[in-house]
Specification:
The complex is a heterodimer of chains A (658) and B (152). Chain A is 21% helix and 30% strand. By secondary structure, chain A is α/β, with parallel strands linked by helices. Chain A has a 15-stranded mixed sheet that branches. In chain A, strands 1, 2, 3, 4, 27 and 28 form a six-stranded antiparallel sheet that branches. In chain A, strands 8, 9, 10, 12 and 13 form a five-stranded mixed sheet that branches. In chain A, strand 14 (465-466) and strand 15 form a beta hairpin. In chain A, 43% of the residues are buried. Chain B has one domain. Helices cover 41% and strands 25% of the residues of chain B. Chains A and B meet through helix 1, helix 3 and strand 18 of A and helix 1, strand 2 and strand 4 of B.
């Protein structure tokens, strides 16, 4: 009896142990099953959330291209801790498994904004680098129960840059201020005065640079022309840059100041005797004789000089040259035309709207001297004619040349002529021939009158600009760097090989996708497929060590009308080896940047260089058509661009579920 | 002296009772075993499904759209059995009990200029293998959208 009880007890005990272990095992297996289920669902939701946050960033990146979009305004205001909720249309249509109910909550928040560089220098108002947060929560439900949810939070930086500043903000130029110029030559005056060969002094008989007519463009949006060093405010004592008027412009009288008289001055017998001492012995017989100065103005360059008038003009020109220095002796036609109808500036208002600094036309002012014996009564008419037509008394009124004059008669004439010219300061017209460069391009309303060189006519000075160091306002000078703020650049690449396969430039397709400032530390070559142009869309700047442009650059048909492309090199060259149109701003400025133009240039944009270096330009006519989208009016306001950076600076993943 | 012992009847009754007591335990054990093995194989299957999606996501949309030009040998389009012994990667040995099928959609899913490409990965147990025996589901499937990154 007792043994039976023990045996039963033992069996029951064993059964209980087995039961407990079995239940434990069962619970563990159920937990494993639940864990597997949760693992699957949470991973599923995490994958969905990863896609969702990618979509959220893609939406921000895409929509901030549009300055009127909600996302652009949200980032542009960058009010700290402000939030913005938005939809994820693609992910909301995404259903991983039937029966699951998937929902998303997406929002963005401004974390920070910095409007100074690392040295504490303030950036242009409105520009800066900020950080914003995107947060996406994906929630998976079965019936009403939340099965799994995952929230991913990421931080991205964003840059706000002013790609084009408006007239309204011009007192605070951003580093894009050079876009205001159709033609800008930073070291213009230096090059004009010192370069060799002489063709670099902007007067050449086989090169024309035409800045095409902008009269149809609103005044505020016209591209200006400026040669550094001609700023009258800063370089008060310097000479202007001048362009010689050629004969094909001489038909346009508007180019010259008003000039009515032919006889400009008469001197008495005593002065005639001073000019020609040989007449002194005949003073009594020549009573009533006067000396007459006749003057005219005209082009400085003609293809040929013929006849007596031609001989007079060419000899006068050569005589004037003999008294001048280096660049002033260049009598070739001016290379610059500020409109394309063969004339530099007919309308003073138009010229004033696009020209800055002391930039003038130079024409030839000729004076010759004759003796007038009409009132002389003591000698016969034949003697009068003899004296009057004697070449010894018909001299050109020239300045005293640099080299000594061997002919004593001419030496005496010129020396005394200079004294007579100086004697009467009230004379309205000079008595000595000259290359006249004291008048602005358009002197339509001006009378030609004596100028002694102390009066300096000039177009308005350029605006001061907002420089990198300290954000102070500076007068326009050589010490500037366009697009100087590296922290505002959106993308940097080391080699052209990287660039040509990047999302910015697809060399195979010949496509440029521009947005913001891209830097390439290499020379960049542009050549479209099948000899066609490279096509671009978007608005942006490419900074490189140099450019070789072997085919045209053209805006894509699908691009926005105001999209533009700027190619900028600081110390390198931009070689343009194509006759196709280049729809881009070309900038080679900062450290001896140059352009090399091997074929007639057709540029639609702007040209900004340190030196023109015309010896690097092919002969022929080069045209610059200014793109008014590079200059915004006050009413348009600045064009700011926002570039969210794809780099993730912070990420947090939070998962939950049942 | 006559020794007392269990009668046959008693023995039979005891065995029946014991069997009745052990049967649920046996059932529980079997069920638990199946549940555990199912969870085990499901996690392996899901890990195998997740792997190519994560790799593809890290390479990005542009790379994915031309994937057939430069496929990764580990992630071929179509069906392939994972061979853990032939790769340096640390797969569980039981991975070879599964076939993985990768598909990339031919066309994009687009909305307002934003593009994404759908990747579908299905993992099936190899027929008549242990995984086929233990895994309750015929397939573990994972889908993801790989979005076009910013074009700058």
């Amino acid at each position: 009896m007792r043994k039976g009880f023990i045996l039963y007890s033992f069996i029951v005990f064993i059964l209980i142990i087995i039961g407990v272990l079995t239940v434990q095992f069962h619970q563990m297996s159920r937990q494993a099953g639940a864990m597997a289920f949760r693992f699957e669902k949470s991973e599923l939701v995490r994958q969905i959330a990863e896609s969702a946050i990618d979509e959220a960033f893609a939406i921000f990146f895409s929509e901030t291209k549009n300055i009127n979009s909600e996302k652009f305004k949200f980032l542009f205001k960058h009010k700290k801790d402000s939030t913005l909720s938005f939809q994820l249309p693609i992910m909301e249509d995404f259903s991983p498994n039937s029966g699951d109910d998937l929902s998303f909550i997406a929002s963005a928040m401004i974390i920070d904004f910095r409007d100074s560089d690392i040295y504490g220098n303030r950036l242009y108002p409105g520009e800066g680098v900020g950080t914003f947060q995107i947060s996406v929560a994906a929630v998976l439900k079965q019936r009403t129960k939340i099965v799994a949810q995952c929230q991913i939070t990421r931080h991205h930086d964003f840059r706000i840059i002013s790609l084009v500043t408006s007239q309204k903000r011009k007192p605070y130029y951003a580093t894009n201020f050079l876009l205001d110029y159709a033609l800008f030559v930073r070291c213009g005056m230096r090059e004009f005065q010192t370069s060799t060969p002489i063709k670099s002094s902007y007067n050449a008989d086989n090169i024309q640079i035409v800045v095409r007519d902008q009269s149809q463009i609103p005044v505020e949006k016209r591209g200006k022309i400026f040669f550094g060093g001609t700023d009258i405010k800063k370089y008060l004592n310097d000479s202007p840059i001048f362009f010689n008027v050629a004969e094909n412009f001489s038909q346009y009288q508007e180019l010259f100041p008003k000039f009515v008289p032919k006889i400009i001055y008469t001197v008495p017998l005593s002065d005639c005797c001073n000019l020609f001492p040989s007449l002194r012995g005949f003073q009594n017989d020549l009573q009533g004789m006067t000396g007459v100065f006749e003057a005219q103005i005209g082009p400085i360059w003609k293809s040929q000089y013929s006849g007596a008038q031609g001989d007079y003009e060419s000899k006068t020109k050569e005589g004037v040259k003999d008294a001048l220095e280096s660049f002033q002796c260049n009598t070739n036609p001016g290379v610059l035309q500020i409109s394309d109808n063969g004339i530099m500036a007919r309308d003073p208002a138009y010229a004033a709207s696009i020209l800055e600094g002391a930039i003038r036309q130079r024409f030839l002012y000729t004076v010759k001297f004759n003796l007038n014996l009409d009132n002389v009564g003591k000698i016969s008419q034949s003697d009068k004619n003899k004296i009057k037509n004697d070449p010894a008394y018909k001299l050109f009124c020239l300045p005293i040349p640099k080299n000594p004059i061997s002919n004593t008669n001419i030496k005496t004439f010129l020396t005394n002529l200079a004294q007579i010219d100086q004697r009467d300061a009230a004379k309205t017209l000079p008595l000595i021939s000259r290359f006249e460069d004291n008048f602005l391009f358009t002197s339509k309303q001006q009378n030609f009158e004596r100028r002694d060189g102390s009066e300096k006519d000039s177009y308005p000075s350029p605006q001061d600009f907002f420089r990198k160091d300290g954000g102070r306002m500076h007068p326009f000078d050589a010490d500037f760097r366009p697009y100087a703020h590296g922290l505002l650049r959106s993308k940097t690449m080391d080699y052209f090989d990287i660039f040509k396969t990047s999302s910015v430039y697809d060399k195979a397709k010949g496509e440029l996708n521009l947005r913001g400032i891209t830097t390439v530390f290499d020379e960049v070559t542009f050549q479209g497929p099948n000899q066609g142009p490279v096509e671009f869309s978007g608005k942006g700047v490419i900074i490189a060590d140099g450019f070789r442009i072997l085919s045209g650059i053209k805006k894509k048909a699908t691009a926005a009308p105001d999209d533009f492309c700027i190619l900028y090199t600081r110390g390198g060259n931009i070689t343009i080896d194509t006759t196709q149109e280049i729809e881009a701003g070309i900038m080679a400025v900062g450290d001896q940047g140059n352009v090399i133009v091997t074929k007639p240039l057709k540029l639609k944009g702007c040209l900004v260089v340190d030196y023109l270096q015309l010896e690097n330009w092919a002969n022929g006519k080069h045209t610059i058509t200014y793109n008014p989208d590079l200059n915004r009016s006050s009413s348009e306001g600045d064009f700011f661009q926002i570039i969210p950076a794809p780099q993730i600076t912070f990420q947090r993943i939070t998962e939950d579920g049942t | 002296m006559r020794r007392r012992a269990f009668t046959l009847t008693e023995l039979l009754i005891s065995m029946v009772l014991l069997s009745l007591a052990l049967l649920p335990l046996l059932w529980m054990t079997t069920y638990s075993n199946r549940e555990s093995m199912d969870a085990y194989y499901e996690i392996i299957a899901f890990s195998l499904a997740k792997e190519p999606i994560e790799v593809f996501r890290s390479f990005g949309y542009e790379w994915l759209t031309s994937y057939t030009n430069h496929p990764l040998t580990r992630f071929p389009i179509g069906t392939m059995v994972v061979k853990p012994r032939n790769t340096p990667d640390q797969y569980p040995f039981d991975s070879e009990l599964f076939e993985r099928e990768i598909n990339i959609a031919q066309n994009d899913t687009t909305q307002n200029g934003i593009k994404a490409r759908r990747v579908t990965v299905s993992v099936h147990p190899v027929k008549r293998s242990r995984s086929d025996a233990w895994l309750r589901r015929n397939e573990v499937k994972l889908e993801a959208l790989i979005f076009d990154g910013p074009r700058m």
